[in-house]
Amino acid sequence: MIPALDPQAVLEPQYRDYLGALKGAGFQGEVETRYGHRLSLATDNSVYQMLPQGVLFPLDGDDIQLALRLAQNPEFRQLTFSARGGGTGTNGQSLNRGIIIDTSRHMRGVVSIDAERRQAVVQCGVIKDALNDELRPHGLFFSPDLSTSNRATLGGMINTDASGAGSLVYGKTSDHVIAIRAILDDGSELITGPWDQAARNALKGRARELAESVVALCQEKQGLIEARFPKLNRFLTGYDLKHVYNPDTDILDLTRLLCGSEGTLAFVVEATLDLTPIPDTRVLVNIQYDSFDSALRHAPELVDAHATVVETIDATVLNLAREDVSWHTVADLVEPEDAEQAHRFDGINMVEFAGEADEVEGKLIALLARLDSGDNGAVLGYKVCRDGGSIGRVYAMRKKAVGLLANAKGPRKPLAFVEDTAVPPEKLADFIAEFRALLDAEGLQYGMFGHVDAGVLHVRPALDLCDPADERQLKVLSDKVAELTRQYGGLMWGEHGRGVRSEYGPAVFGELFEDLRRIKGWFDPDNRLNPGKICTPLDSDDELYPVESPTRGAFNRRISPQSREEYERAIRCNGNGLCFNYQIDSPMCPSYKASGDRVESPKGRAELYRAWLRLLAREGVDLSQYPPRRAPLWQRVRNQFSQETDFSHEVHQGMLSCLACKACSGACPVKVDIPTLRAEFLHHYYGRYLRPLKDHFVANLEDSLPLQARFPKLVNSLSQNRASQWLLKTLVGYVDPPALSVPTLTERVGQHQPSTLPELERRLARASSEERRHMVLLVQDPFNSHYDAALVEAGLKLLARLGFEPLLVPYLPNGKPQHIKGFLDRFRRTARNSAAALNRLAAYKVPMVGLDPALVLTYSDEYVTILKEERGDFEVEVLQSFLARHLDRWTPRPQSGHHYRLMGHCTENSVRPSGATEWQQVLGHFGAELKTVNLGCCGMAGTFGHEVANLERSRQLFDMSWAPELAKEEGEPLSSGYSCRSQVKRFGLKGLRHPLQVLLELIEGD
Ligand SMILES: Cc1cc2nc3c(=O)[nH]c(=O)nc-3n(C[C@H](O)[C@H](O)[C@H](O)COP(=O)(O)OP(=O)(O)OC[C@H]3O[C@@H](n4cnc5c(N)ncnc54)[C@H](O)[C@@H]3O)c2cc1C
Ligand code: SF4
Ligand code: SF4
């Protein structure tokens, strides 16, 4: 059995006392000191890892004020504070070792929108896309864009001065912040805005002191500032001395200092933003090239064509995108159709025009004429996207690019450390040629893409930071790239901020760096706000974090190479935060969406897992070599009731709320796969502790169902009455058990179907190869076969009506419930038996189909993981995939006027998103229109929603996305998932049909 694990992460006494005193002082939000919670904020998308002492989740600005005021007490004067928003920084900006104030949980509101003045006031934790959702009905948007727009907060954007695609036209965040309400280190409030001399005279206290000091500095150093600040669109982020004071108008605006200051000057609580009208028309032209260099060299001409956006992607990134589940949604918008050209396709520029329709059309016609002229031999062709949906899909693919890069095979992973260089755009191609030479000379792999219109390039060289040699190389390369950018008149930090790369500041700013330190000292004299970043106060001996600060790799190094490989699903999380997507219609990640707790996200769970492996390694346990042994019952009982500290309990807690929906394993760009990790964890955890009864109940379900189905009426009478349901709830912790189908499946299909596997095999063996060409094997799943037998019967009927001879494969347990609960030994046995049977059947070369997506996908996922080669090569596909491949057998039917909506299954949508499109094709072929609706998880997820402990969460998730969609009157809603249908049914709404039932109805209606 695994040992108990003590993280030994005791709080420093003054932090412990402070955090203890905070609640008593009236702090309304949450205070968190558990190791797992501290860990979940110990990383961002950078290479670094720093464990904070504690985390605060303030309810509002008053809470932040209170927290900082309390910290003024002499006994707490050593404490430091760092703000955190989405935690998507790429350079460790939000990481620190003091207290983290996370504003993303509660402070995410839009305070007011003034559409007439095109302004909005927002709280700092609002997510950029969520803000734009609220602005859309007003025809407005917050225009600075960034790839992480579905999880990055305005506070984070302001403090990194974020920008992205379209920055030449739409500008950076600082160009759109009108005023900021901030809290200073002593808890006093600062409200910024444009101040002339009269306004400055009216200021009091700290605000006045700050204003006077900054004006004096700017007046004195004007010449130096002009000379020293790079003349770039992305000149740098933070402490913007160039724009904070305008000597011509004598206006001072401290907003410009705070923007990009990475939380080192003040806490931003609210901001007044300037909004932009949503353009009338948008057109995107995807131009294909024979090389990345050709794409780069063509970019200046595209910028001259007055494009709003010019983005570029190289072949490495394109190839990774091709392997992503979402590629099928953009392939025809991006790739050349001609096979020869597709072969030469090695780079792309994405050119957007936005504005008034006539103006856009004019620019488009001019560009296409130039492209069609054939002047540029490197241009292979182009694709034009005119509708918002297509444009959105291409941008979504581009926004995923960074994450996709991280999907590289092997221990070396693309890392953020020199990834946002900016040089004058006209020098970009030459700069990149040198940059590439530098990386090639080191033999490193990398992919490149970027905002060529602004001269910003994103490069993530692949290194393995578990290898000390690669760790040293990170510093060497950083230095070289910083120098190279300077030679080209550019900057190393052109877009994503400085963070733990601040040590290059003195070289960039020269003597002005001392003035930055002066400013820091005026705002934060004791260096308590996000210390170690950007600069330290002039009179302080504190140091900046060096580039060689401890990395995640250095922590992972403590885990054996074998375990790192075996548990790569956890190790490879790079913290890009895609799993914090706020959109309720995205499948990722239901447990995080419901709780708002980062620990209950794929990232949080991966973090727990890595720490767990690390702590086990410290105890001498290398999990990859460790035979999972279950302690004898008496020992498990003793462990269960022992008061011993064990970090495994925190991991357990984090894993329990996971629905095992698999959205992470499909939609995470690097395929962090929590359900697989979770199963393995539970397997070990319950080797040490007692399992709850409900786990046994769930794991035995599949095996017990055939027996129950022999006496369905009796079982139903026992299970469907109040007394037994109360007992089940109280003793087992299980609620709302569904009723068995009556008549049962056997009764429905009668004597026509083989009742045993040998019988089926005999039938297959007897059939001629011609007869077999018409046969289809329907593989049963436990839930549809026993609780929705009518559906299985309809499936057989449908296949028969379509001209096949359907044969029902006698019931084989699938094992998924055992896997979910971490009964891995039993799951292995179940999978081995079922795989053996299915492999025997596969030998007859008759297609095998299944009806429930989640259970069918288990054969190609969990079976592979547990059985490896032993799994064999049998294939079971979802019914619609089989039907879609055979559509040419049936004459297409005219539109019948029937409209349906397919309520997407979250596992299928994430892991195999083409499933919904296939149903659309199939029903469309037979004359019905099917709209596919993307939804989050319905909250049932197998048996998750049946567990008492999860009931409230299950309902919450259902109410979030499914209930509002079901309330619409837009065509009959359909669902292919058994769990989803039973969830809808138990919450008292109309029962949903499976799309196959509709298809059968359409066919039988003839
Ligand atoms: C895959 C990927 C793609 C990216 N693409 C882009 C891009 O296109 N353009 C771009 O500009 N950036 C990009 N980034 C970087 C990152 O997303 C941005 O810097 C973003 O603005 C950070 O926002 P956040 O809410 O995650 O902030 P965090 O990472 O939480 O914090 C960033 C900084 O802001 C400070 N901060 C946060 N909230 C406050 C507050 N209320 N008061 C004071 N300080 C605060 C933090 O202390 C920290 O210093 C990308 C990152 C990733 C992972
Ligand atoms: S789990 Fe995946 S999506 Fe979430 S932060 Fe890690 S890598 Fe990104
Ligand atoms: S399986 Fe679902 S609930 Fe669990 S971590 Fe992944 S996305 Fe979240």
Describe the overall structure.
With 1006 residues, the chain is an alpha+beta fold. Helices cover 45% and strands 13% of the residues. The protein has 48 helices and 30 strands. The strands form eight sheets. It has a seven-stranded antiparallel beta sheet, with helices on both faces. Strands 5-6-13-8-9 form a five-stranded antiparallel beta sheet. It has a four-stranded mixed beta sheet with strand order 1-2-4-3, covered by helices on one side. Helix 26 runs antiparallel to helix 28 and helix 43 (879-885) crosses helix 45. The longest helix has 24 residues, at 205-228. Flavin-adenine dinucleotide binds at residues 44-45, 82-90, 93-94, 103, 124, 146-148, 152-153, 155-157, 159-160, 162-164, 262-263, 267-268, 402-403, 495-497, 530, 576.
Features:
5-stranded antiparallel β-sheet; 30 strands; 48 helices; 1006 residues; binds iron/sulfur cluster; alpha+beta; binds flavin-adenine dinucleotide; single chain
Brief overview, please?
The protein has 1006 residues and is of the alpha+beta class.
Q: Mean pLDDT, rounded to whole units?
A: 93
Number of DSSP-assigned strands? 30
- Helical fraction equals 40-55%
Strand content: 5-15%
SSE class: alpha+beta
For the largest sheet, list the strands in their spatial order. 18-15-17-16-21-22-20
How would the global form be characterised? globular
Q: Report, as a whole number of angstroms, the end-to-end distance.
A: 63 Å
Q: Compute the gyration radius: what is it? A: 30 Å
What's the tally of helices? 48
Profile the largest sheet. 7 strands, antiparallel
Low-confidence regions: none
- Bound compounds, please? flavin-adenine dinucleotide, iron/sulfur cluster
